[in-house]
Each structure stands twice: as C-alpha cells, then as structure tokens.
Amino acid sequence: MTSLRRRLFLVLFAATGLIWLCAVAWISITSRAELEHVLDARLQEAARMVHSLVAGGNLSTTPPAPLSPEGYERQLSCQIWSLDGRLLARSSGAPEEALSAPAQGFSSRVVNGEDWRVFTITDTEKGVRVMVGDRVGLRDRLVRDLIAGLLAPALLIAPLLALLIWAVLARGFAPLSRMASEIAARDGEDIRPVAVDHAPSEVRPLLGALNSLFAKVEAARQHERDLTAFAAHELRTPLAGLKTQAQIALAAPDAAIRDDALRQILVSVERSARLVRQLLALARLEAAPAQKPSEEAVPVGPALREIVHHSPAAPGIVVEIDPALDDLARKVDREALHLVLRNLHENALQHVTGPGGIRWRRIPHGVCVEDDGPGIPEDELPRVAERFFRGRNKSLSGSGLGLTIATLAAGRMGARLDLANRADGTGLRVRILWPDAHGA
User: 6-25: string of b/e by CB count within 10 Å (b at 16+)?
Assistant: First the structure.
C-alpha cells in the first residue's frame, strides 16, 4: 500500500475499533460482576421478606402460571417447604422440584435443565424452609442485552466515524497536495526554492532537502554552462589558428614558409587535443563519486617515470627524479595519482621555456616538484586553482585547467597541494602532501 493517507486511515480506524472493543469487553466483565452482586442481594432480601410473611406451615400450594419466553417478568421464583420435605407454597413461576438442597445460604443448582441461583432460609421455629431463586439464563440475558445496547450504536456510528477520519486526513494532507500541485505546475527551468514558511513542521525537513537538491542542480547547471562557454572560447583560438595556418600552407609557394605553417598546425592540434583531454578529465573528476582508497599501494616513482617518458621535455630542459620516490607507495586511487603527477609535470614543462630543469623529490609526507620557470605572481597564487585562470605568466599552450585538475585529483586521494614560489631562485614549487602517514 503506497498511499500514506489510506494507510493512516486504516491504522486510525482499526485503532479506534480496537479501543472500542476493549471498552466493551471491560464493561461486560465489570457489569457482569456488579449485576451478580446486585441480584444476589435482591435474592437475599426477597427471601427474608417472604420468610417474614410466613406465619406457620398452614400454606396452600398455588398452581404455577406459564412464563413468557421473551420478558424478564417473574424472574424470581419462591418455594416454601416444610422441614419434613412437603412443598407448602410456591410462586407462579417456580418449579415443583426443590430449587436447592436443604443447606442455608446461596447455592447453585440445575432444575429441569435450567441453572438456578438460590438463597435458602431455614426456620426451625416456624418449621419452614424458604427458597428464592433466579434463573441464571435470565441473568446472562441481562448482560447480553446490555452489551448489545452498547454495540448497536457503535456499529451505526462506525461509517460516520470512518467519514470523519477520512475528512480530517484530507484536511491534514491539504498542504502537501498544494505543494505538489505548485511543483508540478513549474516548467523544467524553474527550480526556485519551495516556500517553507507555512509548511507543517513535519514536512519542513523534506522541503529543506528538496530545496537543497534544487540548489545543487542549479549549481551543476551553472557549472555546465560556464564550462561549455569557456571550452568554446578556448577552442576557438586554436581552431582559428589551424584555419589560418592551413590557408598559409596552401598558398605559400616557398617550402620553408609552408613547413613553418604545418608546424604551427601541429602545435594548434596538440593544444586542442590537450584542452579536450583536460576537459574530459575535469568532467570525470567532478561527476564521479568519491572512490575508496585502494587496497594495494600504488608506487609513485614508476608512475612518475611513465608520465615523464610520454611527455618528452624540450631540448635544454633536464628532468630529475629522486630515486627515493621509487620506494614511496600510497594506497590511493591510481587514476587520481596519475592525474596529479601528469598535470603538474606538464604545467612545469610549459613554463620552463629556456635551459633549465624540473626536479621531482621525495619529502616528508609527500612529493615535491620544482621548476626553473618564471613562477607565479604572489597575488595570483590563491587563484591558480580556479578553472581557466591563466595569470600574467601564462604559456602559449596552457589552458588554465592543469592546476585545477591536479587540485581536484589530490583531494580525491586525501592529499592537498601546496604552491609557492621558490625561495632559492625563480620558479614554482608544488608539494603534494598527505596528512600524517595516511595511505602509506
């Protein structure tokens, strides 16, 4: 059953019915006990009254009258017996057989197939024994009629109670229905927060979560729009360069000019390919859920050597790798580690334009890379991880995404990047730091 309203209706109606039945059972038990007490007292009083009226044993027998099977009239039956066992008198509804044994007081007995409750008084001075009895069946009937009197109105009221509960639930769920109608009436572009001021307190957490989801969706859409706009802008330049260089190559009669144009085409293609690769990497990082740390430690040195091998440096640039990195391994996401190392290495290659070097070293709790490039102006250091931020010392082939990807990937493996200009010369120093010995 998926309808909350229907489920609550059934629960409330069943609970009300159960409480009602328990009340009827309790009334039945207590009423029976009270009724037995009252009727026994009446038996006792009736027997004493009859005994007080008996003057002696000169009583005559009265023929019994037939009993009505429906009413409660003649419920009491009275017999007056002599002590030697002769029936001296009886009421109109009393049987001819003795209602009780000669014992005095209350007793129960079956006479002619009927259960009787009897009170007996034995008077040896008057020589009589007075017996006043009640049919137990009539007592039970009194209790049954009492319960039936309680149940009959309840059964008649039950449909009205069901309608009342259904109407109350409909009124209680009305705010939910209004909010559902309001959200359903919106178009796909309208993701404004839902107003929670007048919402029931029980629904506010749900609305808060829904508004939070709306905010995340809006942020994701805004990010997608920004990314698309930046990508279009960044791709436009190399594509325009490709077109221009291709036109020059086609029109140039000189072989040297044609060869230079073709080399520029290769540069533009390389830049476009790198930009597309970085955009795809950035999209994967932001879309994929966080990965659990790898059970197997990933060696840093071999991964770095593989990246350096596939990213050859320009003539005059020397890449040094600390042999101690071969002994460093981390239980991290292998792809994230490769993204961090490759983007940091490519970033260093782009900024070391003349003779110089790139040095990878092992440091306590991490890895450090230093280059002999121009470094980053101090006021731009806080912004270098922003998407498409290139700064004043930008390279011709840079896209402004390398450090962004490296920062995101480092976060994926529980590390952080620390960027600073070198104190012992020109260039940038980037440290990959893991807290304590995490993942070692």
Answer: eebbeebeeeeeeebeeeee
